[in-house]
Design goal:
Length: about 325
């Protein structure tokens, strides 16, 4: 079986028109819209749907709040899809549409689906970076960008009440691979058919941070851009369009090395531009991060109060590939 990534995200929102404008300004290409939904399509062939949270097509799950209310995962072959459906059907209801999309609820209550998906090839040409003594661009300016156009959906994050139990479901029933484990924060998981460091982050819904209330909620989705310039052009343009600013600005995570900028999103939670993340394969050795803030950021533009004091350095390799029990 091979899940190759996110085929589509379905947002449940309270204002379709407002959220459609937001995602257009964010850089997603609008394919079609009417009063009941907006549909965006990315270069890789994945899609984003925006519907009313009261739309009958939004699954009636345990999840609360606005945001992504259904994730359709792309599966590489019909055989793999059939095998996943047969396995899941052993202990839960799986409905299969006329187009072959299978829908079910995870053990934790998330509305997931599976659909055969072939990613379209995409083209990116990040400009080579210069450093003193290492000239990769001579007499060649960097390309001037005017807008951000995310080409991929890199990952999705949910706050999950029993995130370790839900992690076991993702690993054992859907084949996700452990990439990293951040104590008390969450587990980073990679769909088995992709090299993205993580496709899914199961966060601890009871983490003592704002927005976490112990309930199953959408947290954020990450959209991939080419490089730092495209990321920051996107952030600048969102501010020019009058949308709320990022709380911390630009930063680089330590845990997957990615450049990030999170923006508050009217469709729920936050939306993240991402670039220059780690790509890993089955030889990757997962790590555990006992000091969550050390994992969170290598650096950040606007230091929040919780990072004023630099966190201590600590991480360990999980050479047995298993999440340790914490006392
Ligand atoms: Fe993220």
């Amino acid at each position: 079986m091979s899940i190759i990534g996110i085929e589509s995200l379905v947002y449940g929102v309270d204002d379709i028109a407002l959220c459609t404008q937001y995602l257009k300004d964010f850089g997603l290409a609008l394919k079609r819209s009417d009063e009941t939904e907006a549909v965006f399509e990315l270069a890789e062939g994945s899609s984003v749907y925006v519907r009313s949270i009261n739309d009958s097509r939004i699954p009636n799950s345990k999840q609360v709040g606005f945001g992504v209310r259904e994730v359709i995962w792309g599966v590489d072959t019909q055989q793999a899809l059939t095998a996943l459906v047969q396995s899941l059907s052993q202990d839960r209801e799986v409905s299969v549409d006329s187009d072959g999309t299978a829908r079910f609820f995870t053990d934790g209550g998330l509305a997931f689906g599976l659909r055969q998906f072939t990613k379209k090839p995409i083209v990116n040409a990040p400009a080579p970076t210069n450093a003193p003594g290492m000239v990769c661009r001579l007499n060649t300016p960097r390309p001037w960008r005017t807008q951000a156009i995310p080409k991929t959906i890199n990952h999705i994050v949910f706050a999950v009440p029993d995130f370790l139990q839900e992690t076991a479901f993702f690993q054992e029933r859907l084949g996700f691979k452990l990439s990293d484990y951040q104590h008390n924060v969450g587990v980073y998981l990679r769909a088995d058919g992709t090299n993205n460091h993580h496709s899914l982050l199961a966060m601890n819904a009871s983490m003592p941070t704002p927005g976490m209330d112990g309930q199953l909620r959408f947290h954020h989705a990450n959209f991939g851009v080419c490089d730092l310039d495209e990321l920051m052009i996107g952030v600048n343009n969102m501010e020019r369009a009058g949308w709320p600013k990022s709380h911390f600005g630009l930063g680089r995570h330590r845990i997957d090395s990615a450049l990030f900028c999170y923006l508050p999103c009217p469709a729920g939670g936050e939306i993240e531009y991402g670039t220059d993340a780690d790509y890993v394969d089955d030889t990757w050795v997962p790590r555990e991060w006992p000091i969550p803030l050390f994992a969170y950021s290598h650096w950040v533009q606007d230091i929040p109060p919780f990072l004023v004091e630099a966190p201590a350095w600590e991480f360990r390799y999980l050479t047995d590939g298993k999440i340790p029990k914490i006392k």
